[in-house]
Amino acid sequence: MVFFSTAIFLCKAQCSSTSEFSNFASCTDLDVLNSALYWNYNISSNEAEIAFRQSGIYNYSTWIAWAINHTSIGMIGAQAFVAHPRSDGRLIAYTSSITSRETILEKGKLSFPVYGVSAIYANNSITIFATLMLNSRTSMVNHVWQRGPMSMDNVPSFHSHSKDNLRSYGTLNFLSGKTGTRGAERFMVMKKIHGSLNVIGWGIMLPLGVVIARYIKVFKTTDSEWFYIHVICQSLGYIVGVMGWTTGLNLGVQLSGFKQKAHGYIGFSLFCLATTQICLFFRPKELKYRKYWNIIHICIGYGTIILSIVNVFMGINILKQGKKWKEAYISILALLGTVAVLLEIGTACYLFFSRKNKNLGTTDGARPYNS
């Protein structure tokens, strides 16, 4: 379109300026990355003519992209319009369907009709132009925008993990012109809730329950006291962990195409193992069966703890929460480990002197580990 080629020279620094792209009926400043979007929307044909601009590009070796995502929030599943310089210095624009986080923005067809894709670099800004047909006759879409460096091989490299780069998505209504981040903000809150519940449930309360089971029963107490404290701790950990697991399943539905198979498989295994432990609440009274029950219970218990710790670290890396979450969880594990070591030493000494007193006929009733 001729107006696409000429509109860029009419723009000013902000979308709110009075002489913005005069051939576009609507425009909005996007929240981050010095970006703005201009469009005309034909309600009868559900066709949108768009111009996406990113300013402040002083290094010409930069790629930009704007995308619509009909299936979820974020990058995976996005139908993108990309622009970047070629090795000969010319700017190219094309479409790319994003199916994984490891994408290098290869050229490809989109899930909806597109034509007139072009780009221009002027006044330290890159602008992408295109005309597209919206799916399902809807004017509301999820959209995402991004920028990143070019590699030495003139291939788009992965973008930065700065705060702005991780916040560059939201919702857009082509008809009303309203944009928002409510869906994106709700999604970020859900991710934090998912991580927090799993850290507390699987990653803290289950290991704490093991410490209780191993050490409290050694000291002078009744069987039911330490056992029910252990059961309460593990049950609460299970409930909180399952809440975190179901939240993760919901996130997986929203992030269609976002594949973290190992994390998901471990999460499902944790649910199955922890559920089995709950079912083992009723201990056999006969000693000959109790021995086998103890072996199964201990093996499943320690297996669950190991998997839970591994999956918590995997989840922290996936959510990219930075060093604070990881350092905080490492500190909690270190504290539990220190307590366990001190209790191990304390109970060993306690049992030693208890046996010694027993030999002298003054036993204080210490309980062995495996009772």
From TrEMBL:
Residues 33-148 form the DOMON domain. GO terms for cellular component: membrane. Keywords: Electron transport, Iron, Membrane, Metal-binding, Signal, Transmembrane, Transmembrane helix, Transport. Signal peptide: none annotated. Its main location: membrane. PROSITE patterns: CYTOCHROME_B561 (PS50939), DOMON (PS50836). GO terms for molecular function: metal ion binding. The keyword Metal-binding applies. Heme b binds at H194, H230, H263, H297. The chain crosses the membrane at residues 195-215, 227-245, 265-283, 295-316, 328-353. Residues 155-352 form the Cytochrome b561 domain. It is found in: Membrane. The keyword Membrane applies. This is Cytochrome b561 and DOMON domain-containing protein.
